[in-house]
User: Fold this.
Amino acid sequence: MTQQTPLRRVALTLAAAGLPVLPLRAGKAPFGNCPTCRGNACGGRPNMVSAGPCQCPGVCHAWAAATTDPHVLTSPPWTAAWRRAVCVAYHPGTAGLTVVDLDDAAAVAWARGTLPTTQTVETTRGEHWIYRGAMTSHNAVRSGVDIKSSMSYARYLGPGTGTMTTLPDEVRALAVKEPSPARRPHIVTVAALSGGGECRHRTPVYLERGIAMAEQRITQARSAVHATVYRTFLAVLSAHGRCGCLTDTHIARLFSAAQAKGESARHCADAWANARAALGM
Assistant:
């Protein structure tokens, strides 16, 4: 029988309790995709569980690799990964959890004065506040604060202290606030439609439907994510960009959907700028 590493023992214990886990390598990052899965050529794993169109037995697709299956966790590809791993991570969303990642003392002080108490785990520089309930993950909702839930992972740093409570509206509200200045999307400034008159894109239902469809298109991309993001940005700008009805909030929603699929803030900004340039904006 293969001797278990300490990290794999922890992972199996967590998995038995219903927490989907995965190993992290040096730098606290997921293991990279294998050659077959590189660039999402395999179709990826778009669901919030390890199952999906990809049948790769390896530790691929970052957060989507997280699993509670002990047979997967002890399979040869995973055994090799555990030997190289530096810590255990888990996918909060699948377990019905949300982690408010407080990255420094100032963020912790803010949380203690603003958020309802819950289970708390100390981190290297701050704390994880863990709530019962899942939501969309968002980075930098305010200085030093990230929200990790669906399509994200968090390090397992022990059971922590306190009693886990229900995800409060105060945390959900953080996701709909304006992005921090460091991550503010590029603002579209274009001339209004020629000819005057009321722009039909300003009808709330029409515009909302367009943005929601764009978010869905990005979220459901199973391959060529970068190209899908660019084409979606292009379509949104083509339909709504020249009338000036797009707001920071609309653009932030598109950027958030793209970043949830793995696009960096810089890639989002570049794709947006390239789409504008292609349309002569």
User: Anything to note?
Assistant: The mean pLDDT is 81. The first helix runs from residue 6 to 16. The CA atoms of residues 224 and 234 lie 15 Å apart. The two ends are 64 Å apart (CA to CA).
